[in-house]
Amino acid sequence: MTIHIAFLVYDRLTALDLVGPYEVLSGLPDVTLQFVAKQAGPVAVDTGAFSLVAPLGLADVTRADVLVVPGSSSGTLDAANDAALIDWIRAIDRTTRFTTSVCSGAILLGAAGLLAAKPATTHWAAMPFLPHFGAEARPDERIVHSGKIITAAGVSAGIDMGLYLAGQLAGAEAAQAAQLLIEYDPMPPFQAGHMSKASSLVKELATRAMARAASGSR
Amino acid sequence: MTIHIAFLVYDRLTALDLVGPYEVLSGLPDVTLQFVAKQAGPVAVDTGAFSLVAPLGLADVTRADVLVVPGSSSGTLDAANDAALIDWIRAIDRTTRFTTSVCSGAILLGAAGLLAAKPATTHWAAMPFLPHFGAEARPDERIVHSGKIITAAGVSAGIDMGLYLAGQLAGAEAAQAAQLLIEYDPMPPFQAGHMSKASSLVKELATRAMARAASGSR
């Protein structure tokens, strides 16, 4: 039985938030991968370097087994205030087996009321927003699974989340085959990928860059 | 001084091969990220789930500090036989500080004559092709740097390569800030990301899936 996976595309999304889990899940047998934007067509990513063309609009997709909601360095709050987008997330969630977010995509799940009284994670820069939605922030967890909601930490955490989700959907061996297909045997040459591991200078550099990106001036 | 980074987009590319290093490198200060296709416009990714819109055509880009060439599960050989594409890679390489590939993108560097007598890595499924280009295959290395050529293993290895490249271009601290921006602190829930780590069954599942993808039937 085909698993329908919907990937939400919205203005100024962070490309890797979506492409990470997408590429993992594309390695499973019998999946349909649906890229869905407000209207079908091109949507610019947050750096402005390119656009993603979503073949489907919100009106074209009324159910999904899995929903993946990405974050954005500058567009999350606009998206959270877009009633059509948030209503769609809420409606699709009623049909899913898993509703998931990567990075600041958790803000959109929160805005849809899906994180109330739930533990959740997000990008470190978005972490302070989680309590506004009644969520319990888990800054030290890379993937948080609660009921049918799965949230992932910043950007690259979507790959780990995609692999975890692959295991939930198709079992450990199919997930491992998907991992081998994308040769996901990470060997980062530096070890500064979490706030608890980076030096003060690196944290300051990253925090300033984040503020620049959030203001749209890169 | 702005660093110009060109990302080659071609028919049926594997999206994460390009988006991985792109997202890492977008976190560096003073970079210009240029997505370049044969002609400017939309190009479908290998699963057919969406397209990437490249704002620039080959004729628009005559030099780059860094070139990133992605792989494809089904389009690499067509691209390797496209003289305009391969001539462009060869011409841009004459202007770069680093010419890089991810996954089967190494085949395109090979077709451009850039891997002769060089050590290189690629996706496990593409490894047997490297010797045809005079390259010395290094199946156990995730990143191979030789002269100004940097090749990465399959798909997700482009993130590690992007981070390594960030260090080469901008120093360890800027690279670590880019790592923290994308929260790249990998914690894969399975450990089957390399041929030496996967079980026989998982290797067989992945090899069969790869053959299906290569034949274009997903």
In short:
2 copies of one chain form a homodimer. With 218 residues, the first copy, chain A, is α/β, with parallel strands linked by helices.
Which descriptors would you attach to this protein?
homodimer, 218 residues, alpha/beta, 7-stranded mixed sheet
Q: What's the helix and strand layout?
A:
The structure is a homodimer of 218-residue chains.
Chain A: E1 3-9, H1 15-25, E2 31-37, E3 41-44, E4 51-54, E5 56-57, E6 66-69, H2 76-80, H3 83-93, E7 98-102, H4 105-111, E8 119-120, E9 136-137, E10 143-146, E11 149-152, H5 157-170, H6 172-181, H7 200-214
Parallel strand pairs in A: 1-2, 1-6, 2-5, 6-7, 7-11, 8-9
Antiparallel strand pairs in A: 3-4, 10-11
Helix pairs in contact in A: 1-5, 5-6
Structure write-up:
Two copies of one chain form a homodimer. Chain A has 218 residues and is of the alpha/beta class. Chain A has seven helices and eleven strands. In chain A, the strands form three sheets. A seven-stranded mixed beta sheet of chain A has the order 5-2-1-6-7-11-10, sandwiched between helices. In chain A, α1 packs parallel to α5 and α5 (157-170) packs antiparallel against α6. The longest helix of chain A has 15 residues, at 200-214. The model of chain A has no long low-confidence stretch (mean pLDDT 96). The interface between A and B is large, with 74 and 74 residues.
